[in-house]
Amino acid sequence: MEPKTQSSRQYPPKPRDVYLFATCLVDQFMPEAGLDTVRLLEREGIRVHYLEQQTCCGQPAHSSGFPDEARKVALQQLNLFTQPWPVVVPSGSCGGTARSVADSTIWGVWSRSMAAWACTAWPRGS
Questions:
Q1: CA–CA separation, 10 and 89 (whole Å)
Q2: Residue 38 to residues 21, 22, 86: CA-CA distances in angstroms?
Q3: Strand, helix or coil for residue 27
Q4: Confidence category of residue 120, pLDDT binned at 50, 70, 90
Q5: Helices 109-118 and 92-101 meet at what angle, rounded to 10?
Q6: What residues does each domain of the chain span?
Q7: Would the pLDDT of 48 be above 70?
Q8: To 5 degrees, how large is the angle CA 10–CA 87–CA 58?
Q9: Which of 27, 35, 74, 122 qualifies as a cystine partner to 58, CB 3.0-4.6 A?
Q10: Are 101 and 62 a contacting pair, CB within 8 Å?
């Protein structure tokens, strides 16, 4: 069995636009991670849209035993992302929480898009 190489991988097409869901973790504790995310995406020619109304993925409520409240917070975020663009989440715990807190009837395509794009690396220059 031949090992997979960079050239044999199948990548989705590089998007022209993405949303940055920075979450409260980046906003309050690690703003440099958000800035670095924007720099990397823009270096690859991707337009980054950051919506100032965004707040939190719902993790604090979920971790404290309030799943219904966490879903409400998550739904508020979902409603901000109105275009069918990928959503990039620079925090693994926030991305994971957003996917696990909200069921598919709330997140639908958004969670699939986030899963596909947040963890995908595009070959440089593609």
A1: 22
A2: 11, 10, 14
A3: helix
A4: very low
A5: 160
A6: 16-118
A7: yes
A8: 130
A9: 74
A10: yes
65-92 pLDDT per residue, tens = 988 888 888 878 878 888 888 888 888 8
Q: Supply the mean pLDDT for the chain.
A: 77
- Bridge-based pairing of strands 47-49 and 17-20 is parallel
In three-state secondary structure terms, 110 is helix
Q: How far apart are CA 10 and CA 109, in angstroms?
A: 21
Residue 107 has which token pair?
């997140």
Q: What is the CATH number of domain 16-118?
A: 3.40.50
pLDDT at 103: 52
Encoded amino acid at 15, one letter? P
Beta strands in the chain (DSSP E): 17-20, 47-49, 87-88
Please say if the pLDDT value at position 56 is more than 60.
Answer: yes
The neighbouring-strand residues paired with 18 are 48
Q: Who wins on pLDDT, 105 or 18?
A: 18
20: β partners: 88
Q: Which of 31, 21, 46, 37 shows the shortest CA–CA distance to 102?
A: 21
